[in-house]
C-alpha cells in the first residue's frame, strides 16, 4: 500500500518505520520540509517529502499533527481523491492546543477534524503511548497482545485502518462510528491503558462522556507534577487508575 504520513513526531516516525517494515511504500512529511527529515528517513526507510508530495499518488494519508495544525490542511487535502483514506491519530489537549470551539462542548475530536479538513477520517493509533507503539507491539496471535480501538463511518476505510493497526503489532478493535469515538479520547478507560482485546471492549463501554475531560485534566496535572519521575509502566498505571 502507498501511504503518506504528515507529522514526523514520535507517533508519525514510529508508524513510518513499522509500516515500511510491514512492506508498505511510505512517504513522510512535516511542516519544516524534507531536508529536516534526513535522519528519520534513514532510520525508518520512509521517503522524506514535502506535505504536497505526501498526499499525491497514495492510498492512505495518516495525519499525526497537533490539533491547531489541522485547520491549515483543508487546501492541501482538497485535491486528494475521495477514495483515499485519511486516518487521524491525534488528541486534543487544551493546555497545549488552546481552547478550540466545539471540542469543549462535546464534539468528538475526529468529527471536529473531519469538519475542519473537509473530509471524513478514521480515528486510529490515538489511544496508545508513543513508547507503547514503538516497543510493545507483538505478532498476531500472541497471548495478551495489546489492542487499539479504531473508529469510523466508512466500512472500507475502517477495515484498511484496522489492517494497518494489525501490521504495527496490535490487535485492532472496531470501536464503532466517529460519533462514538469520544470513548477512546483522553480521560477514558480505553486511552493509553494497554488493554488486551477482551479488556478493551468493556473499557470502551465504561467510558463516561462527562467525566472524560475532568479525568484528562486531572491526569495531565499529575503527570506534570511528577515529570521525570515516572516510568512507562507508572504512566500506564496512572491512566488506568485515573479513568477507572
Low-confidence stretches: none
Overall average pLDDT: 96
How many helices in DSSP terms? 11
| Run of helices and strands | EHEHEHEHEHHEHEHEHHH
In CATH terms, the superfamily is: NAD(P)-binding Rossmann-like Domain
How much strand? 5-15%
Summarize this structure briefly:
The chain is an alpha/beta fold and 244 residues long. Helix content is 39%, strand content 12%.
Q: What does this protein look like?
A:
With 244 residues, this protein is an alpha/beta fold. It has one domain: Rossmann fold (3-Layer(aba) Sandwich). The chain has eleven helices and eight strands. The protein has helices spanning 10-21, 38-44, 51-54, 74-78, 94-97, 109-117, 130-135, 155-167, 197-205, 212-225, 232-243; strands at residues 2-6, 25-29, 47-48, 60-63, 85-88, 122-123, 147-150, 171-174. The strands form two sheets. The chain has a six-stranded parallel β-sheet with strand order 3-2-1-4-5-6. The protein has a two-stranded parallel sheet with strand order 7-8. Helix 10 (212-225) runs antiparallel to helix 11 (232-243). It is globular and about 45 Å long. The chain starts with a strand and ends with a helix.
Amino acid at each position: 500500500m502507498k501511504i503518506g504520513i504528515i507529522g514526523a513526531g514520535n507517533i508519525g516516525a514510529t508508524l513510518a518505520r513499522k509500516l515500511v517494515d510491514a512492506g508498505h511504500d511510505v512517504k513522510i512529511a512535516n511542516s519544516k520540509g524534507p531536508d529536516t527529515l534526513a535522519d528519520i528517513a534513514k532510520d525508518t526507510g520512509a521517503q522524506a517529502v514535502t506535505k504536497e508530495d505526501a498526499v499525491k499518488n497514495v492510498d492512505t494519508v495518516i495525519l499525526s499533527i497537533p490539533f491547531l495544525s489541522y485547520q491549515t490542511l483543508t487546501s492541501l487535502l482538497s485535491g486528494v481523491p475521495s477514495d483515499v483514506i485519511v486516518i487521524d491519530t491525534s488528541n486534543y489537549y487544551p493546555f497545549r492546543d488552546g481552547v478550540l470551539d466545539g471540542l469543549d462542548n462535546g464534539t468528538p475530536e475526529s468529527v471536529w477534524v473531519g469538519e475542519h479538513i473537509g473530509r471524513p477520517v478514521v480515528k486510529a493509533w490515538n489511544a496508545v503511548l508513543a513508547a507503547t507503539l514503538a516497543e510493545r507491539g507483538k505478532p498476531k496471535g500472541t497471548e495478551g497482545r495489546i489492542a487499539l480501538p479504531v473508529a469510523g463511518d466508512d466500512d472500507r476505510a475502517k477495515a484498511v485502518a484496522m489492517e494497518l493497526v494489525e501490521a504495527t503489532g496490535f490487535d485492532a478493535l472496531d470501536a464503532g462510528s466517529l460519533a462514538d469515538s469520544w470513548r477512546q479520547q483522553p480521560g477514558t478507560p480505553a486511552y493509553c491503558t494497554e488493554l488486551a482485546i477482551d479488556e478493551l471492549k468493556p473499557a470502551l463501554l465504561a467510558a463516561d462522556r462527562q467525566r472524560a475531560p475532568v479525568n484528562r485534566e486531572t491526569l495531565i496535572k499529575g503527570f506534570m507534577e511528577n515529570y521525570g519521575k515516572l516510568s512507562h509502566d507508572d504512566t500506564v498505571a496512572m491512566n488506568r487508575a485515573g479513568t477507572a
